[in-house]
Write a structure and sequence with these properties.
Layout: E1 7-12, H1 18-21, E2 27-31, H2 38-44, E3 51-54, H3 69-77, E4 82-88, H4 89-94, H5 97-103, E5 108-114, H6 122-135, E6 138-143, H7 148-163, E7 168-172, H8 174-177, H9 180-183, E8 191-195, H10 210-219, H11 228-236
Parallel strand pairs: 1-2, 1-8, 2-3, 3-4, 4-5, 5-6, 6-7
Helix pairs in contact: 6-7
Length: 247
């Protein structure tokens, strides 16, 4: 699977809920670290959506124990339904040799970096994105903003990386950063993440449920310079003649 434009991932620990994401999401992020019997779930999986497999330990916002964590993720990568795996930048640095083993299973690599305390200044964030991109196919960064200027730092770094030809995904976590999940695609983010409604797991802070996020993203799509959305509004609202769009 290649992500040419933007893909929305439905985050879940239960693959039997894939049908709930179908028609809304483009793939399923399967949180192995929060799942019961994850390999058995993958063996039984007969869904339509490709899977992004994630297995985080507590240092990166997950529940997995270090012992056997990568072995389980590697086992998951052997399934044809798994299109991508998420590997932390710190793991890629320390165990670069394992990346080729994952690639031999014909999966794409999302190399991610999470900062749950702050948003680095743009030069640092740019360097992190570059490092992630040097190891994988998509460079993902998630930071914690303390004010709105931090969200602008993230979005600017995303846009500049995209203009440099890097496939990126970026999220500002928490309430302050929640809107970046809606508009990140405008700045070049290749991936969005949203939990299925009713999922009782705690994922990254500030997430928006899948259906709502999908609708908001669709409402903010930009297609060149066309005015389709404005024209749609004009059809539904009485507009004074002097403010009407020219034909």
């Amino acid at each position: 699977m290649t992500i040419d434009d933007f893909a929305l991932a439905a985050t879940t620990k239960d693959l039997t809920r894939e049908a709930d994401a179908r028609g809304v999401a483009d793939l399923v992020e399967f949180r192995i670290d929060r799942a019961e019997d994850p390999i058995e779930q993958l063996e039984a999986y007969d869904g339509e959506l490709p899977i992004l497999a994630t297995n985080r330990n507590q240092w990166f916002g997950g529940n997995a124990r270090d012992a056997g964590r990568l072995d389980t993720l590697f086992a998951a990568s052997r399934f044809d339904s798994v299109a991508y795996v998420d590997i932390e930048l710190e793991t890629a640095r320390a165990k670069e040799w394992i990346l080729e083993e994952f690639r031999e299973n014909d999966v794409g690599l999302i190399i991610s970096h999470h900062d749950f305390e702050e948003t680095p200044e743009k030069s640092v964030l740019t360097a992190i994105i570059d490092q992630c991109a040097s190891y994988g196919d998509i460079a993902k960064v998630a930071t914690y903003p303390t004010d709105l200027s931090d969200t602008l730092t993230l979005l600017t770094a995303l846009r500049e990386a995209t203009e440099d030809g890097i496939d990126t995904a970026g999220i500002a976590m928490g309430e302050i950063g929640s809107h970046t999940r809606v508009i990140g695609h405008i700045y070049g983010s290749k991936l969005g993440y949203a939990p299925l409604l009713g999922d009782d797991s705690d994922y990254a802070p500030g997430q928006i449920p899948l259906g709502k996020l999908a609708a908001l993203i669709e409402a903010t799509r930009i297609n060149g310079t066309n005015l389709e959305r404005i024209e749609a509004i004009e059809d539904d609202v009485t507009v004074p003649p002097e403010l009407r769009l020219p034909n």
